[in-house]
Batch of 4 targets.
Target 1
Amino acid sequence: SEMSCTCIILAGGKSVRMREDKALLFDNVNELNRRLTELGYTTIIACGSKERMNLFDGTSIADPVDVNSLPDAIKSFVESIEGEIQFFPCDMYLLSIDSLQSILNQQPGIPVDHNGREQYTLARTHSDWTPASHPTLRTLFASFPRNDMSDHGIELTNFNRPEQLHALNKLNQ
């Protein structure tokens, strides 16, 4: 059952550390949405607040009003969507089609990158998971298996700091 998951792109808004809206950089959300849709996946953009619904192409959903954190948002999506869910962060600007395919083919679990970092925003949930409320992504996904994706190297990097972005902008020039 290759197409048995819904893809959710987490594009909720301003990053405190980055000081700008990572979801709007490099048109990455629309690009990722296009790639996933072309591969035949149902794809939803979790856009954060209602005011952000028109920022992206494709299907956007706003967070429910009682949601105040990413773990809460993820819990609400899991409760409202049937089957497995594959999450994607809006700020993996280096993902190749090869890495994308590995993420889509993973068993339910949490990818671990080449630095040994657990990439919770690339979680694949299993269809019968009933999440409890948790303050952090680490505790929310504590029981999940870990999927080794170290061979994808820097492609699984999240961009959280302005200096990372300056380096990427130089690459893109």
Note: The chain has a mean pLDDT of 84.
Target 2
Amino acid sequence: MIQNIFNTPIYLSKLEEPVLNRSVMTMMNDCIHTKNFRVESNYGGLQTNKYDAKTNEKLAVKILEETTKYVESLQRKKQFKITLNGFWININMKNHFNIEHMHYNYQNKFSGIWYVQCGEGSGNLVFKGRDDFVAVSQLDQYFEDKFSNEYEIQPKPNDFILFPSYLKHWVKPNLTDTPRVSVAFDIGFIDV
């Protein structure tokens, strides 16, 4: 009997909100003009400073609605309130990418990405498994991809992805001439 172990549920959805898309693009353009950026996981490209939920309340509400769907699909042990711990915008031009990182700290429980603008070749999102210290033992030479330590998603416009904040991930280089624009965010819980 085969048993799959170390399950890590991630949430995949679509967030098709033209008004929110435009507001994010406006925020992005404002940041480009003011040069209000930080360097975190980005290699090249631009990453805005962290915004709080009040900066764009409609976006915050949509993020929390989608997070609630994810949370409700899991078996809760206790009641808690879901909070948005902040969001930021990533703009990756041609050949720019985000290095391996994770968002975990004592406040962040889930993290997510909403792809506002992207396409084929704009850079896949890659998640890394938990076995950082154990090599795959070269089993990939003997079997077809059953022992992979990575899970890759080719994002499409409006893809909305939620995952545990401890999950290491990165985004491959954008190979297109169109900037890849995404909103990244962190989610916390408050016990009630």
Note: The CA atoms of residues 23 and 97 lie 23 Å apart.
Target 3
Amino acid sequence: METQTTTSLFRRFQQRLEAAGGEAHYVEDLAGAADIIAAHPALAQSEIVVPPAFAARQPWGALLSMLAERGIAIHEAGDPASVADFPAGLSSAELAIAETGSILLADNALAARVVSMLTLTHFALVQAGTLYPMLEEAGNALQRLSASGPDQRHYISLVTGPSRTADIERTLTIGVQGPRALCVIIVG
């Protein structure tokens, strides 16, 4: 990692995300991210679904060939039915918040959005430079994404850990209305 600040921010993020039932990893480059994804138990079937045109997303697109080299079959998301209960999905997050262990997902297309909502395990990539200590410090990025114009995103959400819900008796269930597992990979 580049600085002590990055190290301490990541550790705080990791602690908060793990407390919410997720997992976090820091890697220096995309090859490290490919190693983590390929070795993850969720990839036992060696298949992963990605949002449409993920190969063109910078800097993440190069990761797809690295996963293919590791024997992972890449599928592009279509309608929600084609993604529902897929063993693993890979997308990118705009930023992460160390204070809460949350990531900000922002997309304009439903086919991209369902990868993070309907797969059983969601892998999210985040650039280390977009790891903020607190939500308030990410305010400018949030304003940019929600303002009218070319950067505007229509589907924006903060995600902290895997999907969880509880009934009136307070019985907690994981993964009923979304992924059972969330793996965030911060890339330096």
Note: The chain has six helices and twelve strands.
Target 4
Amino acid sequence: MNNPILTPTGLVEAFNELQSSHHNMMVKQGFWDNRKLVRQTFSHAPFTLGIVENAMDCQCMALIHTEVSEAVESIRHGSPPDDKIPEFSGPEAELADVFLRIMDVAQDRKWRVIEAVVAKIAMNAGREKMHGGKLF
């Protein structure tokens, strides 16, 4: 591996840089204004803040699910070019949206998602064929 980005450490560093940049753009565009308001409102009540943060995290997960569903629908319709970035198919664009939403929430919550991906890849490398007989 001559490309340092292809190493697990290089991948993590590059991904985290991209993730931070993307999240900062989303913050500037106002997508995190509600979360900021919630944090200010409930800063004196950590228990309540935790409950509301959990609900907002679940909303983020639902939005990720929505992007996956949009990819499925695009496949069901023959994987046509995406309407916003037509050089890519609908499934490609929707899966890109999945990554973007994951990066956005992971940056805000300080979740180490890319590190978990690297760890999962290493763990899966040592598993038995088809992880013990799963069909997919």
Note: Helices lie at 8-28, 33-41, 46-76, 90-109, 113-125, 130-133.
